[in-house]
């Protein structure tokens, strides 16, 4: 699905923040991405979401060379990738339902064609009773589940999760992890970025460990 070969990244004239990164993301896989703060996890996720281009090396997305993609091709590939941010990025003036439905609205679809799908997904993540609530009245866990639902509504082939449990308590973090595991079982590849070792110990999955810009594989 995605292949990195000897990828390096630097910002401006600074030193490289990612050095000789090589790994693969296979279809229907689950991997943790971990490492200390400042190790480069967010930069790697930005490369994976095509919001950055590497300074050197090769990245292929679905057999396409990422360095040669045109803007419209980048947009098309991004529709195959979902991303969940630690800070949620919900729009406070939109209801939970409207936030999750936003990708469909942006694409110009009629509401009748997607309403049932959005409602079903919100029920699946436990927000069936919060359809009309605005983000300011949602708890941290509810906001996170809404953000996850928004990323999933387009049925991505790959889901990138950037510290998705960083703002919730341990019991809810475990429940959210189980949700991501279920996504993998349904056919979505998941890359789950976290520094929570206790949480990672809850699920037996490969760990990609970033340290000082270099990536190590820990089964």
What does this structure look like?
The protein is an alpha/beta fold. The chain has a domain at 91-155. Helices cover 32% and strands 26% of the residues. The chain has seven helices and ten strands. The protein has helices at residues 41-48, 71-78, 96-106, 115-124, 140-152, 170-185, 197-200; strands spanning 2-10, 16-25, 30-34, 56-61, 64-65, 81-84, 158-162, 189-193, 207-211, 214-218. The strands form two sheets. A six-stranded mixed β-sheet has the order 6-7-8-3-9-10, with helices on both faces. It has a four-stranded antiparallel β-sheet with strand order 2-1-4-5, covered by helices on one side. A hairpin with a 2-residue loop joins strand 4 and strand 5. Helix 3 runs parallel beside helix 5. The radius of gyration is 17 Å and the shape is globular. The mean pLDDT is 90.
């Amino acid at each position: 699905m995605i292949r990195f070969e000897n990828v390096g990244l630097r910002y401006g004239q600074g030193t490289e923040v990612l050095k000789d990164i090589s790994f693969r993301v296979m279809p229907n896989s689950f991997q943790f991405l971990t490492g200390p703060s400042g190790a480069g996890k967010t930069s790697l996720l930005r490369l994976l979401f095509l919001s950055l281009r590497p300074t050197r090396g090769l990245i292929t997305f679905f057999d396409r060379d990422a360095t040669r993609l045109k803007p419209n091709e980048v947009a098309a590939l991004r529709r195959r990738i979902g991303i969940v941010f630690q800070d949620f990025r919900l729009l406070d003036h939109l209801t939970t339902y409207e936030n999750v439905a936003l990708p469909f609205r942006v694409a110009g679809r009629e509401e009748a064609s997607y309403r049932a799908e959005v409602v079903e997904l919100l029920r699946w993540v436990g927000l069936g009773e919060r359809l009309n609530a605005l983000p300011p009245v949602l708890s941290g866990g509810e906001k996170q589940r809404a953000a996850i639902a928004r990323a999933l509504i387009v049925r991505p082939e790959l889901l990138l999760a950037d510290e998705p449990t960083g703002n919730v308590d341990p019991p809810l973090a475990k429940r959210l992890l189980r949700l991501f595991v279920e996504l993998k079982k349904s056919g979505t590849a998941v890359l789950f970025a976290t520094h929570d070792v206790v949480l990672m110990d809850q699920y037996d999955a490969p760990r990609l460990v970033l340290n000082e810009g270099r990536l190590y594989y820990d089964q």
